[in-house]
Amino acid sequence: MAKNAQSRQLSPPAKGTEAASQRIVEAAIEVFCRKGYDAASVREIVEAAGVTKPVLYYYFGSKEGLFTHILESMFDPFLFGLNVACRWEKGPFRDRL
Questions:
Q1: In angstroms, rounded to a whole number, what is the distance separating the alpha carbons of residues 18 and 21?
Q2: Which of 7, 49, 62, 90 has its CA at 20 to 30 Å from residue 26's CA atom?
Q3: Rounded-to-integer distance, Cα 67 and Cα 87, Å
């Protein structure tokens, strides 16, 4: 009996692929910007990054996981700064922003 894709255990990528996740992110940003999330395909992203689909799934789990990672990495510095400004600055909230 064949296992389905979700119950399979993924092996770590081969040695020398440490930069693969960064290449995936860069390729995904380019594809998402050009085509939008819905029209972007995993196939297109992995081809642009020079990796295989299992490598993308190993690092990010899914196209949605990759997109979420990108959004979080872009918004985390902003949210950190906002949090610092709201906590430590004195004065009205509007002025702290």
A1: 7
A2: 7
A3: 30
What DSSP character marks residue 52? -
Burial 76-87 (b: 16+ CB within 10 A, else e): eeeeeeeeeeee
pTM reported for the whole predicted model = 0.68
In this structure, of 35-44, 59-68, 69-78, the range with the lowest mean pLDDT score is: 69-78
Measured distance CA(58)–CA(90) in Å, rounded: 45
Longest CA–CA span in the chain (Å) reads: 66
Tell me the C-alpha distance between 89 and 5, whole Å.
Answer: 50
Q: Which amino acid is at 40?
A: A
pLDDT, tens digit, for every residue of 25-52? 999 999 999 999 999 999 999 999 999 9
Say yes or no to pLDDT of 88 above 80. no
Please say whether the beta carbons of 71 and 60 come within 8 A: no
Q: Which residue has the tokens 């985390």?
A: 76
